[in-house]
What does this fold into?
Amino acid sequence: MKLSKLSRVWHRWGSIIALVPITIIIFSGIVLQLKKVSPYVQPPSQRGVGTEPSIGFERILEVARTVPEAEIGSWEDVDRLDVRPGDGVVKVRCKNRYEVQIDTETAEILQVAVRRSDLIESIHDGSYFNDHFKLWVFLPAGIVLAMLVITGFYLFLLPYLVRRKRVR
It folds into this structure.
């Protein structure tokens, strides 16, 4: 089979196979591009009073527990802490996708909001569905997409190569 025919077959079937996962990756990627400008996707970072943290972990947990939406009873309910010393804030990311921003000097709650960017990131990389799904669907879709780029480039150049060959 000629390379041009094989490229067309690969291009046609590859695009059909990878259509759904690549569409999910593209649209979730577009939404992620907006995460710093859209408070719906990711709450904006607030600024605290100081620039050096003066409260400890136990105080952070104690303050975060006072927020009913966060549903924090212990450190088990906290996904991670994002400490921004320059902004004077610590972001407590809860497992229920809420984010509590606390001033690192006064221990005042600066903001409580839903953080959707982590959910969208997990959809984007396929881990939302399943870790096996991520490796057995999204990874092959990425490889197929790379093949589509290669075959598409070849198919784009093919008429020019044929014309050049005829001129000789």
The mean pLDDT is 91.
